[in-house]
Amino acid sequence: MSKQRSPRARVIAAIKTGERQLGMDHDAHVAMVRHLTGRDSLTLCTPDELRQVLDHVNAKTGYKRREPNGRERRLADSPEARMVRGLWVLLHRLGAVRNPSEAALAAYVKRMAKVDDLHWAGGRMEPLIESLKAWAARELPAALERRLAELQAVGAVDRRNTSAGLIHHVAPTRNPGTFDALNAAWESLDELEAGRVAGAR
Questions:
Q1: Rounded CA gap, 163 and 101, in Å?
Q2: Does residue 184 sit within a domain?
Q3: Contact (Cβ atoms closer than 8 angstroms) between residue 135 and residue 89
Q4: How many domains does one find in the chain?
Q5: How many CB atoms lie within 10 A of CB 162?
Q6: Ramachandran angles phi, psi of 172, nearest 5°
Q7: In terms of Cα–Cα distance, which of 94, 20, 97 is closest to 51?
Q8: Are 85 and 134 in contact (CB under 8 A)?
Q9: Structural domain boundaries, residue 33
Q10: Using CA atoms, how far apart are residues 125 and 118, in angstroms rounded to an integer?
Q11: Nearest CA among 156, 154, 191, 199 for reference residue 170
């Protein structure tokens, strides 16, 4: 009798299957895991973080999730739906959202847009996106300060650099308090960390 895999092992296996479907190499895998969870390996991830990575991969592959009635439904994959999903993942990385799963996002969408699925958000999609951006804009300043301090502590960033200076450098023409400017600074730190991971190999 074969030994049944643990739930954790099944999630990791599902992630690997999705990555193969996407043609992801090791560097792309590490960069994705780092971007989503701040960790360098799936083995270091918590169960919630593993689910976050799986949801991200499923969204990329268009994996069909099974509904309670037994039918399968493809995840909403419009540009707006992908943006909502990306903002939800970002809020998890910022520490504002505890559960990054698709189910938790669906509950949020139902509460805010009064629909059960992103497929049906329709004209409510733009207000939903803007509400998530506004939420992230409130969280990003403190998160940038924390992350910059962590990178400075390991010598990855000059200690003289500030988050305000970083925002001005990457988004010189934007209002520094807007989501777009703050997120540009956050993504620049993602790129820096991804480069460090690749360089360490």
A1: 29
A2: no
A3: no
A4: 1
A5: 12
A6: -65, -25
A7: 97
A8: no
A9: 1-75
A10: 8
A11: 191
CA dihedral 17, 12, 44, 154 (to 10 degrees): 20
| Residue-level pLDDT, tens digit, the chain, 201 residues | 445 678 888 888 888 888 887 777 888 888 888 888 888 889 888 888 888 888 888 777 666 554 444 444 556 667 887 888 889 889 988 999 988 877 788 888 888 877 766 665 667 788 889 999 999 999 999 999 999 999 999 888 899 999 999 999 999 999 999 999 999 999 999 888 877 655 555
Q: Is the dihedral angle over the CA atoms 9, 10, 11, 17 positive or is it negative?
A: positive
Tell me the residue type at 50: L
Place of tokens 């190999």: 201
Q: Report yes or no: 88 and 97 within 8 Å, Cβ to Cβ.
A: yes
42 falls within a domain: yes
Q: Is residue 162 part of a domain?
A: no
Nearest to 105 by CA among 154, 150, 51, 67: 51
DSSP assignment of 86-155, as one string? HHHHHHHHTTS-S--SHHHHHHHHHHHHS-SSGGG-GGGHHHHHHHHHHHHHHHHHHHHHHHHHHHHHTT
Residue 99 within a domain: no
Buried b (16+ CB within 10 A) or exposed e, 125-145: beebbeebbebbbebbbebbe
